[in-house]
Amino acid sequence: MKTKTKKRMSPGMIVIYAILIFWALTTIYPIFWIIMNSFKAKNEILANSFSLPVGDLFTTSNYKTAFERLNIFSAYRNSIIISCTVALVVVLLAGLASFAIVRYSFRLKKFVYSLIIAGMMFPVFSTIIPVFRMLNSIHIANTNNLWLSLLSVALPQIAGNLSFAIVVLSGYIKSLPIELEEAAYMEGCNAYQIFFKVVMPLTKPSFATVAIFSFLWSYNDLFTQMFLLRLPEQRAITRLLNELTAMEGTNYGLMAAAVALVVIPVIIVYIILQKHIIKGMTAGAIKG
């Protein structure tokens, strides 16, 4: 009968775990501090900023004020529409582009891939002016139409995420056995059927990773929203938080409640989908 032997942790592993725990605490505590102070009155935050909101310190007035003064649900709707659109389009376009780059030979293939890599090196700050002028010339930006304004934000974010997505997906697709695709082709499948019925099911973790990161980057992208979402009813949640900071600079309780309303959905998304994120990134690291 085999007996299980407990592995002892080496001193090096103990040090690594201690550093990782400390790093995790420095990341988690500010979020906890914000949520904790969002349940305190603004005059109590400076005096008792590190105390738990229990007893007389506890209040929900900050959240009531936030929902009364700010159009939270409209901002959430706009953020969800933009971010989901970006994630879906990036997954589709990047997946097809990656499949073509990996499985097909054509002229200037290496040059095209080099351009994709180069696209990751240009920050959004360097392209926002020409992008804004282009969107304005086709009458998408600076309009009173809600859907056109949301589209004007989604298009630059889609373009900004494509390079990263193509690099991640192409590395994973390259590792798939080509015999599976050849067998599907022999069964009469065309290129699109091979992609949707063979490649995508086998690369779910990688596609999920790209979709999640595209969604989160879009959700948190304040810079593009500052340029393209002008009217109050068009603002997404991060733009709304920026407006609140300008209006209520000293009302720390209201600001903490607004930050919590912005951050909590992202945390929930990450907690629910963390397995897909980790699985996709580690699979890409091993197979790419």
TrEMBL record:
GO biological process: transmembrane transport
Keywords: Cell membrane, Membrane, Transmembrane, Transmembrane helix, Transport
Localization of this protein: Cell membrane
Pfam families (UniProt xref): BPD_transp_1 (PF00528)
Cellular component, GO annotation: plasma membrane
Major subcellular location class: membrane
Transmembrane regions listed in the UniProt entry: 12-36, 80-102, 111-135, 147-173, 194-219, 252-273
The UniProt record lists the keyword NAD: no
Organism name: Faecalicatena orotica
Topology of this chain in the membrane: Multi-pass membrane protein
Protein name: Raffinose/stachyose/melibiose transport system permease protein
Top-level lineage group: Bacteria
Record domain ABC transmembrane type-1: where: 76-273
Family: Belongs to the binding-protein-dependent transport system permease family.
